[in-house]
Design the sequence.
């Protein structure tokens, strides 16, 4: 396969393909936290995340959510539509935890009365700062109508994902999405949806089944990522 590496990321590399409208994502056996300050090689993680995100994106496609995912082509690789990524991390929260509780002094685990959307500016040098809609407009990252579109899509995706995780006895606490513009200039869901980018709590035990295990040094992440994959696969059977 003729390809060049276009971008080396913390969790995946992006390669070109012979088709100019298609990219190949290679999921890495690597975990990072604190914007890359904590970093470890973790064998098997790339494969699990490729499988988990592929399953979730194909489910979202079935439910009418347009996205960049095309197909998984090997253990760690998938093909996606080429998009121009909008440099925003769109975070949606259903339950208070993480940076939300630290920033606002809200009690950990508080159920939020409505989903709360936040934006972070994707910029490693600035440590992905929290920004508001005026900042987005000022920095010319997206127009007001594009921001409205991102929020609408994030809320719809939240509904679908909540149902999906509910069906495997997992609470979707919060998550991060990224969007990009496709070749028709349409804004579509991109990047990945995995336990790296979501907080997932087991409904019976309350245990974290996500990257918080790594962030907080609570143990091995492979068994919990495998648990999420197993439950998603069993659901589809
Ligand atoms: O750390 P914080 O509470 O702001 O994270 C909110 C959500 O966004 C979590 O699900 C986390 O996994 C995700 N996130 C992410 N990538 C980042 C920051 C947060 O996937 N760079």
Sequence:
């Amino acid at each position: 396969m003729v390809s060049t590496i276009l971008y080396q990321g913390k969790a995946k590399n992006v390669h070109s393909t012979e088709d100019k409208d298609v990219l190949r994502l290679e999921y890495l056996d690597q975990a990072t936290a604190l914007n890359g300050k904590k970093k470890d090689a973790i064998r098997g993680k790339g494969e699990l995340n490729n499988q988990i995100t592929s399953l979730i994106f194909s489910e979202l496609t079935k439910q009418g959510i347009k996205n960049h995912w095309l197909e998984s082509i090997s253990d760690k690789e998938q093909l996606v539509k080429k998009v121009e990524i909008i440099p925003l991390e769109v975070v949606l929260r259903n339950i208070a935890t993480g940076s939300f509780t630290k920033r606002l002094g809200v009690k950990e685990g508080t159920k939020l009365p409505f989903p709360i959307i936040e934006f972070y500016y994707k910029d490693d040098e600035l440590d992905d700062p929290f920004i508001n809609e005026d900042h987005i407009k000022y920095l010319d990252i997206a127009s007001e109508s594009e921001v409205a579109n991102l929020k609408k899509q994030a809320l719809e995706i939240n509904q679908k994902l909540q149902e999906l995780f509910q069906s495997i006895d997992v609470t979707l606490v919060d998550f991060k999405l990224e969007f990009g513009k496709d070749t028709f200039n349409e804004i579509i869901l991109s990047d990945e949806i995995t336990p790296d980018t979501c907080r997932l709590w087991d409904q019976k035990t309350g245990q974290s089944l996500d990257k918080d295990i790594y962030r907080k040094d609570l143990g091995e992440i492979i068994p919990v990522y495998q648990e999420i994959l197993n439950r998603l696969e069993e659901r589809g059977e």
Summary: The chain has two domains: 5-81, 84-231. The longest strand covers residues 170-181. Residues 89, 91, 98-100, 128, 174-176, 197-199, 211 surround cytidine-5'-monophosphate (CB under 6 Å).
